[in-house]
Amino acid sequence: MILLALVVPAAVATWLLTAGRSLPHRATNLTSAVTSVLTLAFVVASVVLRPEVDRAWVPSLGLRWHLAVDGISAPLLLLTALLGVAVVLHTRERPPVGGTSAAFHACLLLVEVGALATFFARDAVLFFVAFEVVLVPMWVLITRFGDAHHPAARAEAGARFVLYTAFGSTLMLVGILALVTRAGTSDLGVLAQDAGRGLSPTTQLVVASLLVAGLAVKVPVFPLHTWLPAAHTTAPTAGSVLLAAVLLKMGTYGLVRLPLATVPDGFARVAPFLAVLGAVGILWGGLACLVERDLKRLVAYSSVAHMGFVAIGLASGTRTGLQAALFANVAHGVVSALLFVVVGGLKERWGSADLDTARAAVREVAPRLGFALILGLAASLGLPGLAGFWGEFLSVYAAWSPGDDRSLGLFRAVAVVAALGTVLAAAYALRVARLVWAGDRTSPPIEDTRGSEWDVVVVLVLLTVVLGVVPGPLLSLTHDTVSTLVGAGP
Amino acid sequence: MSAAAARLVVLVPVVAAVLGLFLARRREGLDPRAARAVAVGGSLVTLAAAVALLVGVHTTGQDRAVGTLPALAAGELRIPLLLQATTATALIALVVAVVGWAVQVFAGWYLREDDRYGVFAATVSLFTAGMLVVVTSADLVLTLVGWEVMGWCSYLLIGHWSRKESARRAALKAFLVTRLADVGFVLGVVLLAAGAGSTAYRAVLAHWAPATECADSLAAACAAPDGTLRTVAMVLLVIGVLGKSGMVPFHDWLPDAMEGPTPASALIHAATMVAAGTFVLAQLFTLLEASDGARWVLAVSTAVTMVWAALLAFGQSDLKRLLAYSTLSQVALMLSALAVAPADEGPGAGVLHLYSHAFFKALLFLTIGWLSVTVGGTAAATLKGGLRGHLLLRPAMFVGLLSLAGVPPLVGFVSKEHVLSAAEAGASDAPVRAWLVLLAGLLTVPLTAAYCMRAWLVLDDLGTADVARHEADTATGPVRAAVAVLAVLTVLGGIVVFTPLIDLEGHLGWFVALLSLLLIAGAALGVRRVTASRYGAGEDPARLVGARQPAFDGGFGVDRLYVVLVARPVLATARLVVFLDREVVDAYVRGAAVGALLAGRGGDRAHRAERAATGLAWVVAGAVTVALAGVALR
């Protein structure tokens, strides 16, 4: 089942890139839609059945083709597969510019395959390989299919994205190799069970620093975030959605899977830095959003702030914190996907995303789009009843009462800063609402959303509300695995 | 029965809101009647559920742990998501339901030509749901959920007429100011929950209770909770409450919130948002009572607000803003009861004032709103003489203002005197604090009477009366019924103190009551006399403060203070951050790129030497080096 979920989209993508290049947009989109729906079905089946694939891969190095599902990866797998369908649907009525439709869809599918493989992987080296698979198709999406008005910005953003994250990956690879050679196995399950026993404190610290630094680029944690706004501004809507909702999640997922699980003692020593940087990121991102003029960049900066909460939750060293981080992770995936669909749609209609230009109030001329926008903004500022609240509240709680081996004073300061960050979130969300959503201008008119775009928006809105009103199922899903990972909690 | 009723009380308005929103999304063609039916019907069912809750609590007994959704598995923290069905929650839930119903009925008529009535009605339903969650909650997280949902709904309601710049600004200001204070609330909740390891009220109260209460249990379990931490937590919580209730220094958002449609103002001011803090603190009264610091913060802020707002109310040129300031003053009064009431009296006086304020303030707002439809505005100059000749509005406004002023036997008198008596009783525990509140209260009493008298003189002005315009009154039967019900409750609501519906340990101090009656009479007569003499000199009763009018209308410049002290510095920091982000944080990234590029050029140039001989020379040099190295290493 797991293999099917990976092989089917990969095969279709390859076919699209080679034989299917001349297909018209409609046919390509249909093929991709069917593929992504099938993939979603396979992913759902594997989340329910929890099968495991374990085959030798490179026997001489002890590498295994080991794939499985557990409570931590399940929500992310579902999110990825669902958004995989969403982005293909979203593309239905807007043929990509800058290249063939087949290449565009193939890239979308490849990103999905890479992300799914990352979340399925139970082998450290396999994880790394899958992690890297995503880079090239994403680069193509940004540089080839991005913002048609600014070719130079596109190339720059794409190059920056690839080089920056590849640099992070290199650090991570060194960390993985150091870990694997010292521990003698690359199986993540075994590594997590050993939890760093048999490794000297220095080794643990070195491995943890390398892994955290490498993965922090992907998350991104302040001050390694500058690739994100550029990439988001130029990427096409589908790319932005995948970038925010899937790629960033790979970073946080990696933080849980690798340093936190395999070298907990080393991670405990890096954690205060991570927490402080997370808190700085919350303020930094929030403040930048207050004066940012480009709507897409603004949403990107808000992502930096939101990922700050995730970083704090991870660093707190408690089960609550980890639960918070995992929840906030998924919530941010859904909410930022919603915001990027809406904002991307607005940019498409306006021709630019500049906030200083006087435009018609979205509430007046496009009520549906306005509704989605205000709901997304409300979720972004952490309104209870919507997805964003639980992760942020629990993160603040976890930072206030961190694990026994964490510095109490420092983490409490972080909790206060994070709580203040929610005011900034409110300020920038309402700033956008005041500039874009509300107003008295009704010209120039823009077309309201309908068709596939509206379908995608509806699904994301529903997800946002459901996660916010009924957070129980998701929290229970991650609960058991979290308990095995953080045994040290009180 | 009470458990089911408690769940219904919360669930019904939520369903009404969702349904209403769904209807509102259906555009042209569907007349607003469907939305109105859902909204008013939902509020009626809520009302029925609230009655059932009250009956249930008094027949089948209280239930302090009503389950809702399954408890959340959030690691070490337990979040059971409980509601409760107790005497106090049942009574206040009923009050909220009554006001919610009246507001829905009124809004259906008031906004009958508004193209966004459907959204408005759905938001009102959601707002009511938020308040009912806060009221019936037995879990800090649920309280926080209701609390924030109310905040958001207030943003939407205040900014309902979003085509107006002033409404957009007022909505933004209201949300940001309250949200800033909410940081305190969130952190307070986190602190309390972190100590107890659970968010259930019962666990929190048990954990943080003063040590004396567990003298006979196990020594380990009886370890005294950290008093300082408790005080910090309660101070934080109080800050959140001050923000939501519009107490000094957060008060300036509330008068601006008058930009919202009048039904929204009635809802926000009467039974929900601003009064919510009183109820939350009443639930946690044992903790508040044990934290002297928090009570001091509360006492000082409410004492200042009481007088300040009453003073401002007197000088407003817009009667709706006058009511807004009077709300501040009255809410300060109810919160002050919690700041000074002695432990054995409990929070009863504050809750009682919440109860009575809900009725007479809703009545006043709906009356003003109704009148403004007839005469076309809420400015004092426009409303002058507007009441004359109206058979329902005139008596309704009359009892509403009397109740606000605290004239016996109206409901406002009963509760206000209970608050003042609580302050008097509290003087034995903490004399300074209690006297501060009592003096502020006794200063507020004549001021309140004065502005009520002024409002009445304006509204009932004989000289400009125009009875004929009431003939065109289009108010529907249900609207008349709603106003009449509120008026009756305003007159007779005080009876509640003789029933078992409310836990009231306090009493009514006759000396204080007599004193305040004298003050009321004196102030009212004074205003009347001054007005009469000015009126005789040809001056307008609407203009009582003369040239100082702009200062009063501007709230003495507090808005400006917010901008200078908070908004500007934050924006300046934000600009700095953006600059740093571009020029410092990003600089090393670009630096790395430039460095790599330079290195690449250098390498490129080295490999593009023009003469082959140079290259050959290098090859030879290399070969020699390798050979030498080989020889040396051998």
What does this molecule look like?
The complex is a heterodimer of chains A (490) and B (634). The model of chain A has no long low-confidence stretch (mean pLDDT 87). In chain A, strands 1-2 form a two-stranded antiparallel sheet. Chain A has a domain at 272-490. Chain A has 490 residues and is mainly alpha-helical. Chain A has helices at residues 2-18, 25-49, 73-91, 101-120, 124-133, 135-145, 151-183, 188-194, 201-218, 227-234, 237-262, 264-291, 295-315, 319-350, 362-365, 367-380, 388-400, 408-437, 451-469, 472-485, and strands at 53-58, 63-67. With 634 residues, chain B is mostly helical. Helix content of chain B is 72%, strand content 2%. Chain B is built from 25 helices and 4 strands. Chain B has a two-stranded antiparallel ribbon. The longest helix of chain B has 32 residues, at 165-196. At the A-B interface, helix 7, helix 12, helix 14, helix 16 and helix 17 of A face strand 2, helix 5, helix 6 and helix 23 of B.
